[in-house]
Amino acid sequence: MTSTVPALGTRTAEGSALQAVLLDMDGTLVDTEGFWWDVEVEVFASLGHVLDESWRHVVVGGPMTRSAGFLIEATGADITLDELTVLLNDGFEDRIGRTLPLMPGAGRLLAELYEYEIPTALVSASHRRIIDRVLTSLGAHHFALTVAGDEVPRTKPHPDPYLAAAAGLGAEPARCAVIEDTATGVAAAEAAGCQVVAVPSVAPIAPALRRTVVTSLEEVDLTFLHGLMTEMR
Questions:
Q1: pTM of the model
Q2: What 3-state class would DSSP assign to 134?
Q3: Which of 159, 1, 160, 25 is nearest to 92 (CA)?
Q4: Residues annotated catalytic, as ranges
Q5: Fewer Cβ close by (within 10 Å): the C or N end of the chain?
């Protein structure tokens, strides 16, 4: 877990119920959920196995151990979890080295949060090596804190990553807005007690208490996030 400038004394956050914004990475800020699936298909093809398209919804948004473990069990591939993890991370790192498209509205939202000094964290199930590569495109200066999936005892769907991010920023989880694209990430944020904005990328997510669903980050700005917190009161 890395941190820079974890402060709450910001000109926009003061006097507001919103203390921090916590953002998922794959499928939320960067259009990479499809990259993971493509890499998984390629790696298992090299092992002599064809992945069923329906499995995509099982592995999306999950930690590497869960998704890789599921695919090994489902295919019966002769490979260990550690060996497969290396192959998947290598393949993904190669892909993001060639292209890394941002999700619509991501760049504008990050710039706005930075301009108004809103404490912001990147919270991902991806490993640190992947996050650090992606940060070169997202701009590390946009985040006061980053939490990787291999740096917490339990990653998503457990609340640990979001609890760690809130604590690292000195914020109350209930006063943090989390932006996620998968049911796994939403479950983690809600278990941590955060207010959630879901931007579904691969599978639908239904609205619920403390959860607002939008179709794109282009619908999300600082006014929108402050409004969510105002509704909580």
A1: 0.80
A2: helix
A3: 25
A4: 24, 26
A5: C
